[in-house]
């Protein structure tokens, strides 16, 4: 929700008639409500209020990523937010800095929503309500925390959302209904905030034997240019590898959503800083210009990566579009002290771009290493 944007969703009198007793009529108006599903990337502008309601039959897991170094964060390198409603019981404050390296110290303290700090009479006057209502607004006696159960469902104004409508929106995004917008006519109130990266048909890189890789950046979701963030989703099939690569202009945060894989990360000195197996729910940080390789061995491996650049760029070390592929064979041969034939094989043996299926020998090595 952005302050100043119009309340474009409005209920009719007939729909709400009688809710406050016989003969009473009530109209509700609010800003647009969107729906999201598994695989959606949702961008929130800095300072935008938001809420979420799980109306499905499954547990909802949200992974939140904030860039505290964004220019919108004017205080320091710590990310701060407050609640408009609810009563969060505990808070954490990060503070302290020693010897040039930041240290984090968690301080437990009682906290509440932002209204708790205001004087009761002033709060009641500001909203034009009774002191009792203002007291409930502060939520001091509310012990539910910031996640609450709704017994009879949530009644809000919104149009039905069909699968046909979703497919039509996807076709519009892919340019099938005319040229893409140039962004000039997009305002903060009408900006697109959501894009799904779970649909296999929208993959940027696809190998039927190895997997797929889908990105979202400021070119496909323009609001990301304000957040200076981008994201990608990867799927590696069993016995497949993602080419050794590095992000040229961004740090990346990898969150594993399914399966297990071996990950190796190498720094600028050629030292392996990580060589381990990661599994669902784990997070891996990859600094800018650190090379990384992923190997899915006995099961499908899926992950999401968040990048600290709205148009993060990736370079590969092997494959058809790699740095090695761009070098002359003689340069490769002399650089690594190998024959021209070995250099030719090194350069041309992999015709894939990013995702490779492994040889049986590599698969056997992976199983032996895991044993």
UniProtKB/TrEMBL annotation:
Disordered: annotated segments: 1-28
Entry keywords, A to Z: Disulfide bond, Seed storage protein, Storage protein
Domain (Cupin type-1) ranges: 7-135, 195-344
Compositionally biased intervals (Polar residues): 1-17
UniProt keyword Cytoplasm, yes or no: no
CDD domains in the cross-refs: cupin_11S_legumin_C, cupin_11S_legumin_N
Any one GO MF annotation of this record: nutrient reservoir activity
Coiled-coil region list: none
Disulfide bond in keyword set: yes
Family membership: Belongs to the 11S seed storage protein (globulins) family.
Known partners and oligomeric status: Hexamer; each subunit is composed of an acidic and a basic chain derived from a single precursor and linked by a disulfide bond.
UniProt name for this protein: 11S globulin isoform 4
Organism: Solanum tuberosum
């Amino acid at each position: 929700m952005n302050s100043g944007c119009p309340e474009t969703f409005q209920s009719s009198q007939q729909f709400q008639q009688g809710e406050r007793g016989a003969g009473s009529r009530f109209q509700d108006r609010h800003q647009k409500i969107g729906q999201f599903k598994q695989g959606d990337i949702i961008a929130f502008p800095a300072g935008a209020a938001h809420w979420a309601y799980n109306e499905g039959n499954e547990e909802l897991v949200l992974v939140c990523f904030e860039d505290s170094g964004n220019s919108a964060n004017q205080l320091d390198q710590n990310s701060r937010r407050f609640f408009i409603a609810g009563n969060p019981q505990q808070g954490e404050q990060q503070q302290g800095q020693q010897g040039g390296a930041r240290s984090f110290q968690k301080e437990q303290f009682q906290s509440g929503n932002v209204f708790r700090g205001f004087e009761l009479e002033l709060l009641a006057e500001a909203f034009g309500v009774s002191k009792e209502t203002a007291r409930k607004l502060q939520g001091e006696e509310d012990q539910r925390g910031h996640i609450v159960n709704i017994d009879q469902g949530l009644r809000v104004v919104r149009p039905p959302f069909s699968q046909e409508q979703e497919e039509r929106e996807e076709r519009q995004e892919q340019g099938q209904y005319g040229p893409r917008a140039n962004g000039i006519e997009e305002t903060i109130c009408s900006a697109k905030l959501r894009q799904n990266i779970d649909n296999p048909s929208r993959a940027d890189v696809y190998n039927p034997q190895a997997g797929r890789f889908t990105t979202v950046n400021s070119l496909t979701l323009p609001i990301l240019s304000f957040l200076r963030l981008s994201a990608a989703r990867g799927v590696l099939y069993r016995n497949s590898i993602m080419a050794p690569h590095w992000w040229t202009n961004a740090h990346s945060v990898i969150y594993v959503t399914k399966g297990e894989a071996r990950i190796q990360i190498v720094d600028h000195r050629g030292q392996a800083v990580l060589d381990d197996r990661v599994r669902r729910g784990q997070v891996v940080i990859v600094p800018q210009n650190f090379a990384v390789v992923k190997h899915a061995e006995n099961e499908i491996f899926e992950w999401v990566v968040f990048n600290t650049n709205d148009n993060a760029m990736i370079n590969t070390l092997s494959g058809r579009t790699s740095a090695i592929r761009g070098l002359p064979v003689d340069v490769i041969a002399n650089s690594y002290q190998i024959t021209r034939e070995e250099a030719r094989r090194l350069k041309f043996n992999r015709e894939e771009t990013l995702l490779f299926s492994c040889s049986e020998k590599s698969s056997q090595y992976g199983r032996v290493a895991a044993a």
